[in-house]
Task: structure prediction
Amino acid sequence: MRRAIYPGSFDPVTFGHIDMIERSARMVDELVVAVLNNSAKNPLFSVEERVSMLEGITSHVPNVKIRYFDGLLIDYAKEIEATIIIRGLRAVTDFEYELQIAQTNRIVNSEIDTIFLTTSLEYAYLSSTIVKEVASYGGDISHFVPKQLIPQIYEKYKG
Ligand code: PNS
Result:
């Protein structure tokens, strides 16, 4: 069985992430979407909220499981017996950092490979940071995230 892991912060999940999940799920038997539980990053959404958002918006993809992890990605990948790490590349600027991480991970565990997918062009500009920036000013985020998540995101900036 070919199991891959698609890790990220998903704070919040965007159309870009959903595109990556749908495309990578087609390549493997099982895709584990792994949410980083890292309070040091001071996320807008708790890990439980991010897991629940992902569960809601990936329910149409049968071979996807949503999990969260603490600590090193490579250790978690081994723990769940994933042999592939999936990462998305939006632009050349993503590449340098991603290459360094992929090479580091491979030194630590050479049985796990990283596969990069290029982001679909329509989402190449998109990031969770952009969504938060626009939402914080009450701007329109309907081009960036599924509509069922919009109230939850605006809620964080109320008050
Ligand atoms: O969506 P993001 O924020 O780009 O995802 C980054 C993520 C979660 C993949 C990365 O920060 C990660 O793997 N963190 C866990 C710690 C780790 O393994 N770091 C890489 C080796 S130094």
Remarks:
- The chain has a mean pLDDT of 96.
- The CA atoms of residues 15 and 143 lie 8 Å apart.
